From TrEMBL:
Keyword match Cytoplasm: yes
Organism annotation: Streptantibioticus rubrisoli
Stretches that traverse the bilayer: none
Signal peptide: none
Sequence positions that bind AMP: T31, R36, R57, L58, V59, G85, F86, P87, R88, Q92, R159, R170
Descriptive protein name: Adenylate kinase
EC number(s) from the headed UniProt entry: 2.7.4.3
Family: Belongs to the adenylate kinase family.
Protein role: Catalyzes the reversible transfer of the terminal phosphate group between ATP and AMP. Plays an important role in cellular energy homeostasis and in adenine nucleotide metabolism.
Domain notes from UniProt: Consists of three domains, a large central CORE domain and two small peripheral domains, NMPbind and LID, which undergo movements during catalysis. The LID domain closes over the site of phosphoryl transfer upon ATP binding. Assembling and dissambling the active center during each catalytic cycle provides an effective means to prevent ATP hydrolysis.
Amino acid sequence: MRIVLVGPPGAGKGTQAQYLAKNLSIPHISTGDLFRANISQGTPLGKQAQEYMNAGRLVPDEVTIAMAEDRLAQSDTEHGFLLDGFPRNIGQAEALDRYLSDRGLALDAVLDLEVPEDEVVQRIAGRRICRKDSSHVFHVSNLPEQGVCDKCGGELYQRDDDQEETVRKRLEVYHSETEPIIDYYKAQDLVVTISALGKVDEVTQRAMAALGRSAAA
């Protein structure tokens, strides 16, 4: 299957992408991973992206699109892929359509993870990260008793990006730039919308059912 995953910040796209990709036996391709890989490997595209980032400027669509197309051309995508974070706007969606069409391919579905805005703010603004290991993530509703990471003892803190005001600004960007791709894909009858509320495995099962597949046990 060839799938695009969309949803607002805090919808759990990264987590769901990993589970869905595993269940569907297709590669999970995230924009963040593409940028990190190209920059760390010093590719021409990575160098271009780094220059823009060092200057505090947004990486232009053409660089992001080129990275995505380069990744989609790799052999492991032959039987499908799950895109997470790309396309991010109408221009990128049109570029993806052209890329696939030129190869006689097309998307099978666009999975839209739906979460109420207040829930998004509560999820992200309540998040606390371990300073020693950023993979250790907690929420204010369920912090360890001592107020420190119960895995390594590191201090827990709130990232600047997780401040409520910043979260609401991120949502505004999502509504203005990314949300329009949902209507774009609805016109192609590709959008499958599911609620992203509930436990991770419940959302995964919901998504698999919406895609017409059974989740692995």
